[in-house]
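Allow me, if you will, to draw on your knowledge of protein folds for a short while. The matter concerns a single protein, recorded as an amino acid sequence and a row of backbone structure tokens. Kindly check, if you would, that the fold set down in the tokens agrees with what the sequence suggests. You will find the record immediately after this paragraph.
***
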Amino acid sequence: MKLETIVNQPVIEAERFVLRPLRRSDMGLIDMYAGQKDVARMTTSISHPLPPGATEAFITRAQSEDRVEDVWAIDGSQDDQPEVMGLIGLTRIDAGKVEIGYWIGPGFWNTGVASEAVRVLIAANPLQSTTIFASVFQDNPASARVLTNCGFEYLGDAESFSVARDASVPTWTYSLKLA
């Protein structure tokens, strides 16, 4: 029996959900969503098909004291929704600089969940960041709209490698200055 690791990471309340640290009990829902090709191919790091043990290893890294990324489950259980509707995270880049990343389960696409999660995380600013960066694949304009609607400014084009696609994919890069 594995004990639940308590992570030094805040729970952040939104109107329709809470952002909370990952738990081992999230594995099933994360596997279900992240294992879908449409979700995996819009990320840089999720492989498709999702290998056995990948989600468990991800949660273990997210719960580590020396992690470089803080990850929150978008937990809608307070509003009779699933305990995991998606994930959102902040990766430390440099002093005061982080990169935000998120994915949403397909059943919650175009419902405002991503925009609300990004807005709430920016407002909470749990890592006391001065600048937040983000990038999205150019064939994912919905994620680009989330960022621009949350105040991010376009910086330029780039490329990122997508594990699920096994290819470099053109991206749009954004930033948001907080201080």
User: Anything to note?
Assistant: The helical segments are 27-34, 37-40, 54-62, 113-124, 141-149. The radius of gyration is 15 Å. The chain has one domain: 12-177.
